[in-house]
Design goal:
The complex is a heterodimer of chains A (243) and B (258).
Chain A lengths: L4 E10 L2 E11 L4 E5 L6 H8 L7 E6 L14 E4 L11 H11 L5 H9 L15 H13 L5 E5 L7 H16 L3 E5 L3 H7 L2 E6 L2 E7 H8 L8 H9 L5
Parallel strand pairs in A: 3-7, 3-8, 5-6, 6-7
Antiparallel strand pairs in A: 1-2, 1-4, 8-9
Helix pairs in contact in A: 2-3, 3-4, 7-8
Chain B lengths: L1 H13 L2 H28 L5 H6 L7 H25 L1 H8 L3 H35 L11 H26 L2 H17 L7 H5 L3 H5 L20 H25 L3
Classes of the chains: A alpha/beta (243), B mainly alpha (258).
Chain lengths: 243, 258
Amino acid sequence: MNGVIEVQNLSKSYGAAVAVDGLSFSVLPGRVTGFLGPNGAGKSTTMRMILGLDGPSGGRALVGGLPYRELEKPLRQVGAVLSAGEVHRGRRARDHLRWLARSNGIAPRRVAEVLELTGLAAVAGKRAGTFSLGMAQRLGIAAALLGDPHVLMLDEPGNGLDPEGLLWLRTLLKKLAAEGRTVLVSSHLLSEMTLTADHLVIIGRGRLLADTSVHAFVEEHATAGQPASLEAAFLRLTGGEGL
Amino acid sequence: MTGMALAAEWIKMRTMRGAVWALVATAVLAVGFSALIGASMRGSYDDMSRERQEDFDALAMSSFGIVMAQLAVVVFAILVIGSEYSSGTIRASLLAIPRRGHFFTAKILAAVLPVAALGIVVVPVSFVVAQAALGPYGVSFGAEGVPRLLVGGWLYMTLMALFALGLTTVLRSPARALGLMLPLFFLGSQGLGNVPVVGAVAQYLPDQAGAVILHMAGPPEDMKFDRDFGPWAGVGILGLWAAVALAAGYRVLGRRDA
């Protein structure tokens, strides 16, 4: 698997409302790609379509050259973090990871490994319903890493993490990218993104606004007389909508 | 792939307390009510009119327990698939098993295999318990119609689980599924099917159609065949309901966004 995510002319409408509108971009391995846009820009919808959860109204999305739904043992190729806490409340964290591992023929020892890696080893026997948002987020990341996947997609993974957790996450994402994996991470935390991402895909109202390196983006959009910052550039590009 | 999906669904089912308790409740209700009804009928047999004594159907006495237990079976099936929607785990499940057919097949098997296995034990045990509680008025395994009653009871439980699973997948919510099915099946077993006019239509409802083979269709004086169809046709109608519900569930699962 080459690990490239390809979004080709992807569209999604709900009745008359258009959430994603002819979106095309590629996400390459070996770097952290930040997926940015104001609230309601279509980031989550795009990610769900790439992951085969939502059906597109038009266009297609490929992961390693195939639609997600056609991947064999997808958890070994793609790890995804969507909304935190989408785990049965009565199920223990370890059991949640156990069934996921079993579903894709992943060795059971990986469960203990990812629990250790995400700092959840001590609470592995607790029911997911007792978890804080930060712990739920870590459990989601543990599930994504379970299959040692080449591609990682994370939708707002920093939500609910404390400063220490954010630092841990940033270090982890950079390490995964440095290992040659594809890392796509959506966020509205711009300052966090400046520190984490190498490349940016920015969308607004379901359309592509920019597909560029962080450095080039900030240079290009810097206002004369003001310090160049990702935040200033982002606000200029999106017109400050939804922030 | 379906094998791994089934193994995963099996872990999910065993690690959900509500589902495990629903299976325990199935056994307790079936056996408990069989003992209760059997003992109660034994006590009141002598006070019955001669006519009712002649009509007395010992075989039906264990079916009260099965009809009560079906509510727990339905709750079990609703929880197995419905909890995916209420907890949001459906997305993790479809990320792991993106082919909807594989996921749904695994889900069906994880729901129906425990019910079918439990039924093989619970249905005959309920029969023995009910007949033992009836004492001198009870019958043995060798009595006429017993094999059909036992096979019918097992099919009834199994098919009700499949129907509930399919309908819950259509409704995509355990709350909606419980709200629809529990009153329907509770009213049904309380006698909706025995009300004239309503009964003409209601007899084709899943639980009512399946009730004939349980000797539970009709007023207490004639519980056997107060229907426009026979016991096996009734099981067929229930099977048809289950098949339609599963087909509709598969269609919804395949078409709707998760």
